[in-house]
Amino acid sequence: MAGLENKRPAYPHFAGDQSVDLAVVGGGYTGLWAAYFAKKLEPSLKIAVFEAEQIGYGASGRNGGWLSAMPAGNRARFARASRGGIEASRALQQEFVAGVDAVLEILRAEGIDADQHKSGALVAAHTEAGLGRLVARRDADWKYGLTEDDVYLIGREDFQKEINISTVHGGLVYKHCARLSPAKLVYGLAETLTSMGVSIYEGSRVGSIDGNTLTLESGRVAAAKTFICTEGYSGPLLGSRSLIPINSSMIVTTPLPEEAWQQIGWNGPQCLSDSAHTFIYSQRTADGRIAIGGRGKPYRYGSGTGGTGSTPQSTVDLLSTKLRSFFPGIDFDVDHAWSGVLGVTRDWNGGVQWDHASGVGSSTGYAGHGVTAAYLGGRTLVELAFEQKTERTSLPWVGYRAPKWEPEPIRWLGVHSMYSLFGFADRWEERRNSTKTSLLAKFGSRLAGLHE
Prior knowledge:
The protein is an alpha+beta fold. The protein has 2 domains: 204 residues, FAD/NAD(P)-binding domain; 207 residues, D-Amino Acid Oxidase, Chain A, domain 2, CATH 3.30.9. Helix content is 35%, strand content 23%. It has 12 helices and 19 strands. The strands form 3 sheets. Strands 1, 2, 9, 10, 11, 12, 18 and 19 form an 8-stranded mixed sheet that branches. α2 crosses α3, α3 packs across α10 and α11 runs antiparallel to α12. The two termini are 33 Å apart. This is FAD-dependent oxidoreductase. It comes from Paenarthrobacter nitroguajacolicus (Arthrobacter nitroguajacolicus). InterPro entries: FAD-dep_OxRdtase, FAD/NAD-bd_sf.
């Protein structure tokens, strides 16, 4: 949210006792979308959103700004867990595809300007091994429901006509992806909700939920229904081993001069990623900067969340080096850096849960694909809670429960070992221009449950 603090709306602190029809815990995308769809479904509902810090404090305000069709999880694992098999996973994939345009349409209808623009995404391969992984990825995408028009391979020359990356061997084009400003989307949704009559409270941490009672530091709330929408911050309410906070760091450059953009050739708002095991995600912002992110320091011992998002200089240097390797000869100055955490389950699969008996539900575990997943999860929660049977309420992530993470210190050692393996594999492949993926990376991918 760097650079937008002076534009951030402020909301009051909650104190006292109150009764509501729906209490939403968490002021990020999931909670805001859930409140939006609940109010649209029944305008008379009394709805309150309780945010422990400030709206968008978590991943919603600190992400890479990709509204993409990438599902929140491993499609093969969803297929195996569902009675619908592969068709259930294909249905999930299609809902994510539809979600991209659905979000853009709502933003248009509500007059929300989040610098949104749908122009697809490019995934660059820097080695022959990376290009081979993209071929396998494309084949998996086709298997699980994307079409040849949705995702396709391009060669080196065609890629460089779009974005002139010096080391590229070719890449993938994804049609269904839009760039946006994360913080502007949070602020726009929040302002829309207040105009609809939804109450938003900041600095209002929910300490516990006991049946229909929410206990806060300065009061209590009786809620007919409660949604837990806290993503990487869910440990205290959902259990410390249900999911862990994985760090995501971003840097953004100062505005680039026109001659630099001509050399880079990035003439549109396409999103950019790569096929490295320690991949990056990037966008050209509406005001002519490059924002680029990666995992940096991936995990803090004991599921620490990192507070306000200070970013180690080593991570800033790592992302800056990556950017300069893409576009040598360009003088980049880093204007801002920030970090946030996303929620990751043990098998990287998200899930939407609703318990009719307790009146409590949750949508979490987006594993870095949260912009579209939050829209879909928040909307699905409302449909489940208010007994609206739709195509979304039967998707395979509804009711899906991932296995628990290992206790510490095994958890810390496992996560850091996985990312170390990936980093070593990237260096190995790039130095040797490998034609095949490193065995270490394959082992790390299977260990983490990422392989489809």
